Amino acid sequence: MNSVRIGTVVKVLPPYCRETKDILPFVELWLSGQEERFRRKVVKVFEGAAVDRRYGIMDIEEVFTATNLEAKNNIYIREVKKLGTSVLQKALHESDWSPDSLDYIITVSCTGIMIPSLDAYIINDLGLRQDIIRLPVTEMGCAAGVSGLIYAANFLRANPNKRAAVIAVESPTATFQLSDYSMANMVSAAIFGDGAACVLLSSEEDALGPAIIAEEMYHFRNATHLMGFDLTNTGLKMILDPSVPETIAQHFPEIVHPFLEKNGTSIAQVDHLIFHPGGRKIVQTVEDLFGKLGKNIYDTRETLRLYGNMSSATVLYVLERFLEKKLGKGEQGLILSFGPGFSAQRVLLEW
Questions:
Q1: 107-118 b/e (C-beta count within 10 Å ≥ 16 → b)
Q2: Alpha carbons 28 and 301: distance in angstroms, whole number
Q3: What's the CA dihedral at 268, 274, 279, 282 to 10 degrees?
Q4: Backbone torsion region of residue 169, taken as left when φ is above 0, otherwise alpha when ψ lies between -120 and 50, otherwise beta
C-alpha cells in the first residue's frame, strides 16, 4: 500500500501575547458589575486553568471592547489570511518545497466566517497551482486539525507521489462574548488562545518523517449538545457542557483499544501520546486514564500552559514537539483529538 508520511510541522504565533496574571485585571474590570462571589469564582477559573499565557490576533484592550459580529469577524478575516499565508510559507521553506509542488490544500478554522475560504487567499498569495485540490474544513472545532490529517492521508494514499498541506488557523479571542456571563463563556475565555500551524505530508517514495499507519473517526451518539457555537448577533457564542471530561472517560476504552488492536498494536506498544489539550479537566481525565497504562502526556500539558487551547491548531503544536525529538525507528505515536459532534479523531504514526 502507498505510504503517507508527515514531513514537516510548523507553527506561527499571532502578534499579541499576555500572561494570564496580566489578563486578570481586565477580567475583574469586565465583571465589576457582577456579584462578589461570582467574580471570585471566575478569577479562580482563570488561575486554575493551567494556562500561563496565550497569544492573540488582537490586543487585550480590543478583546474587552464591546463589538458586534461584523467588526470582530473582519479582524478575524484580516488576521487569519496573514497567519495562514505565513505558516504555509514557513513550512514550504523548511521542507525546501516550491509552492507550485503542492497538490492538495486543506484549511481548518471554526472561529470566524469567510467565503471564499482561507485556502483561496493562500493560493493567490503564494502562487499555488491553478489545479490544486482544495478543502476547507470549518465546522469540526477542536477535532479539525486531526480531521485535516485524516483527509490528507486518504487523498495521498489514493494518489502516489503527491504532496498535501494541512493549515489550521484559529482565533477563539474573536469569539469572546462580552455580554455572556455563563460559565461556558468564562471557562472558554480562561483556556483559549489564538494560533496557526501547518503540516506538510507526502506520498512520494523518498518521503521522510513518521508514516501514518492508520486513521479513524469515532462518533459519540446523541451528543451534539456537548460542544459547539451558537451564532448570535454579537458573534459565535460558546457551548461547552461540563460533562465533556466524564463523557470522554466513559467512551475512552472504545475510542482507543479497538482502533489499536485493528492495526496490530496496543497501548502498551504506543510510545508517544500526541493528545489535544482541550482544557485542564480534559487533560487531567486523559492523564488519569493513560497514567494507569504507564504513559505520560507531558507535551500536551506544556502546550496548554504555553499557548492555551487554540482549537484545531493545538494538537499540531503538540505534534511539532514530537517531530523535533530524535525518535527511534519503529516507535509509535497516537494522535488523539475531541470536538463537536461529539467526536474523537485518531491517527496512528510510526517513525
A1: bbbbbbebeebb
A2: 26
A3: -20
A4: beta
Long-range pairs for 27-36 at CB < 8 Å and ≥24 separation?
27/189, 29/64, 30/64, 30/178, 31/181, 34/181
CA 260, 155, 87: angle at the middle one, nearest 5? Answer: 95
User: Which amino acid is residue 305, in one-letter code?
Assistant: R
Residue 218 backbone dihedrals phi, psi, to 5 degrees: -135, 120
Q: Which one has a higher pLDDT value, 121 or 253?
A: 121
DSSP string, 43-58: HHHHHTSS--EEEESS
Domains of the chain from N-terminus onward: 5-202 (3.40.47.10), 211-350 (3.40.47.10)
SS3 203: coil
- Angle at which helix 144-158 crosses helix 314-324, to 10 degrees, equals 60
Give per-residue pLDDT as tens, 227-271.
Answer: 888 888 888 878 888 888 888 888 888 999 999 999 999 998 999
More confident residue, 116 or 291: 116
User: Is the preceding omega at residue 176 within 30 degrees of 0, hence cis?
Assistant: no
Name the pairing type of β-strands 53-56 and 16-19: antiparallel
What is d(CA 6, CA 132) in angstroms, rounded to the nearest whole number? Answer: 19
CA distance 26 to 2: 53
Per-residue pLDDT of 146-181, as tens digits, reads 999 999 999 999 999 999 999 999 999 988 888 888
> Are 204 and 319 spatial neighbours (Cβ–Cβ below 8 Å)?
no
Does the pLDDT of residue 17 top 80, yes or no? yes
Kindly report the pTM of this predicted structure: 0.94
C-alpha cell, 194:
489564538
Q: What is the pLDDT of residue 1?
A: 63
